[in-house]
Amino acid sequence: MYDARISSLQAAVPALQVLTDPTDLAHYGVDWTRRWTPAPLAIALPADVAQVQAVMRWAHAQGVAVVPSGGRTGLSGGAVAANGELVLSLQRMNKVLGFDAVDRLLTVQAGAALETVHEAARTHGLQYPVDFAARGSCTIGGNIATNAGGIRVVRYGNTREWVAGVKLVTGTGELLDLNRGLVKNSSGYDLRHLAVASEGTLGVIVEATLRLAEPAPATRVMLLALPSFDVLMQVFQALRERLGLEAFEFFTDRALHHVVAHGAQPPFDTAYPFYVVAEFASEGEAGEVALLSAFEHCVEQGWVEDGVISHGDTQAAQLWRLREGITESLAPYVPYKNDVSVRVSAMPAFLAETQALLAAEYPQFDVVWFGHIGDGNLHINVLKPEAMANPDFVIECERVTKLLAATLERHGGSISAEHGIGLVKKPYLRSTRSDAEIAVMRGIKAALDPAGILNPGKLFDP
Questions:
Q1: Does CATH number 3.30.70.2190 belong to domain 219-327?
Q2: What's this protein's family per the entry (predicted)?
Q3: Least confident segment among 52-56, 102-106, 167-171, 213-217
Q4: Do 459 and 67 meet the contact criterion of CB atoms below 8 Å apart?
């Protein structure tokens, strides 16, 4: 049934592209969680910042809820529009706007794909070091809105560290130009950082100024087979002490099983219970000596049973595929995902307790683990048995997530490391944030979005 509000929106913003076809509503109304049935009012695709402002002024006046939308690669339901919201897609705002060679700053529209940013940085002989497998489809606006991390956080940190400035359209249509690329700026609150990890609840990120870094050094990739879970942190500590670590990623035999079934080549003739992919700076003879010494040390200690060291980019890409292909290989199972973090120093105790918890509570499910162990981030994927109804599966997984949240609280961790809270993790926010913190968060939202129309129901209830 046609909604008169769509005519009102088109009258208010005459040049705005608006989609109402059911196929478009279904496509733009969900993210990768695929748990909710999309039911947006319409899809608005602005071409510039002025149109975003006009849409938000209209939505504020009409009391229409708005869901900001990027690449919709999120895994927490943060981009879901299931209750008649207007989806505001930044898809058309995907340009690289400029480069400042002196400050090494790249300015892009929020709809630019992460891969586009990588390519733009390379054309200037630099790099944007935040990276993960969804680089071709995720957008910078979404990366900022969830403070995305990825595979090189151990070396370069999260998205937050690379955001020099943000333009944000508030719930009333005001445009805020936050920090403007300054290195030093102590003139009051740094509102730029409020936009980071805000999940579209405080404003629509329309533009970002990003810091770039020196090109990455020449690197090698190492795949290690581990005999037990207990030695994981010893291997990490040994490699961190001896090598210039760029990445340290862990995954289980079940993860490898699914990636190989999806087309990757098995790395060893023998199966092992746990694996690590490590990337590290390695140049010249000294680098070769260091990496061989580190590998031999881990073998001598009994921490590593087998290994492969890359020789050339092709082999390095094959080894990385074993880690980066996990999410894609699991997608057909519609997995229930947990994305948690603790301090690296707390990781050994947390991992031991979590392994015991999941073994006890999920004996009937295929549980696939992987994670960025070097920055304390663990991903837990629970696969639904084919014969089990999805609602029953979700109920069972949510029961265990409550137990996991309590474990995180004891270890001072977070229920969301890099995917956001969205709808999926909202019930467990209090395991990470105190009532006082949540009250402050609500106050900040009320200041920037007084009508409560920006991504309502995400992060916390209205």
A1: yes
A2: Belongs to the FAD-binding oxidoreductase/transferase type 4 family.
A3: 213-217
A4: no
The CATH code for residues 334-427 is 3.30.70.2740
Q: What pLDDT is recorded for position 282?
A: 83
Per-residue model confidence as pLDDT tens digits over 256-302: 999 999 999 999 999 999 999 999 988 778 888 998 999 999 999 99
What six digits make up the tokens of 453? 């129309």
Parts of the chain belonging to CATH 3.30.70.2190: 219-327
- Return the higher-pLDDT residue of 286 and 7: 7
**How many Å apart are CA 192 and CA 213, to the nearest integer?**
20
Dump pLDDT digits (tens) for 22-53.
999 999 999 988 889 999 999 999 999 999 99
Strands 274-281 and 336-341: unpaired
Do β-strands 219-226 and 274-281 pair in parallel, antiparallel, or remain unpaired? antiparallel
CA 258 to each of CA 234, 366, 372: distance values in angstroms, whole numbers, following the listed order: 26, 11, 19
CA distance 387 to 200: 36
Q: What is the DSSP string of 374-412?
A: GGTEEEEEEEPPTTS-HHHHHHHHHHHHHHHHHHHHHTT
Rounded distance, CA 119 to CA 314, Å?
A: 19
With a CB cutoff of 8 Å and minimum separation 6, the contacts of 360 are none
> Where are the domain boundaries for CATH 3.30.70.2740 in the chain?
334-427
Chain centre distance of CA 155: 17
Domain 1-215+432-462 in CATH 3.30.360.10 = no
Say what the pTM is: 0.90
Q: Is 148 exposed, middle or buried (0-12, 13-18, 19+ CB in 10 A)?
A: buried
* Cβ-Cβ contacts under 8 Å for 85 (sequence gap 6 or more): 40, 41, 64, 65, 66, 67, 456
Length of the chain counted residue by residue: 462
What are the tokens at 388?
């089990």
Can you list the alpha helix ranges (DSSP code H) found in 63-167?
A: 114-123, 140-146, 153-156
Distance, in Å, from the CA atom of 272 to the CA atom of 256, rounded to the nearest integer, reads 10
User: For the chain, where do the domains classified as CATH 3.30.465.10 start and end?
Assistant: 1-215+432-462
